[in-house]
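User: Fold this; tokens only.

Assistant: Input:
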Amino acid sequence: MGELLDKYLADHVLKRNRASTAAEVERLVEKHIRPHLGSLKVASITRQDIGKLHRAMSNTPRQANFVLSVCSKAFNLAEVWGMRQDGSNPCGKIDRYPERSRERFLSDDELSSLGETLRLAETEGLPWRAAPGRPRSKHERKPVNQRTLYPRAVTAAIRLLLFTGCRLGEVLRLQWTDIDFETGTATLQETKAGSPQVIALSAAAIAELEALPKLKGSPWVLPKITNSTKPFAKDTLEQSWQRIRLAAGIEDVRLHDLRHTVGTFAGQDGANAFMVRDLLRHRSLAVTGRYVNRAADPVRALSDRVSARIADRLSGTSAGEVVDFKKTTSNAK
């Protein structure tokens, strides 16, 4: 089975899937599938083996279903490659877990709490907590040392998710060459639509980007801490978010809910469905001069209003004045 997984990743996933999808599939293979099935013979794996793996992931139903889909594709290819008999896919007739669709978004008060937590995380650090159920150690940290300081990339990523409405992978894979401060736009090279897209950057997003350091030799806006030639890891950010959201008192909020917050605030601002669609890019839009011009006007204005409200709440202030990007750039010249 280990050989099948290697061939599946090399000959199918890495050649046919987007880089972000390929990275997620590889993560699931290495974390869940290979440990459970890697030592078994491909031809001997049964529906019971797959069902056991699926049940072991019942606490994360969406991931469990994704793992089932990955296994199913791998076994379909095993038949094509002559490693199993035709029609013998062991993933058949295994019921997938129901996945609840929800639209959780942050309230103004929750944004204020998150903003204060982010400031503490990157300056003083957040209170350190041992893993639940872990026995106390006689060498436990002293109270003065029981705080964890978070990398700037972590807090910046969270703010950029709120200021842009982008998906997590889009923010993490931003390179400095993708940012055009002159026009106030960013080109997302890898998107759900499968093609690059240009977005208008709000004043708050531009300010956040301008405040970030550029590491010599690193193309990434948010580089990996231990190896700046690579982008910041999704798993690392997810782990940090678990602790940050706990400290902020918003334990049920996922990183993707930050995107829902942007969409909700846009609707509350009076934007119609077409404007929200363009802001969040729910439909693919061609990367053309016409798109850039449109992004620079009504969509940018909407983005500025939404991110200004979010930025005000994150900073703990009342609603402030929206910065006109055109005026700002013209004055700078």
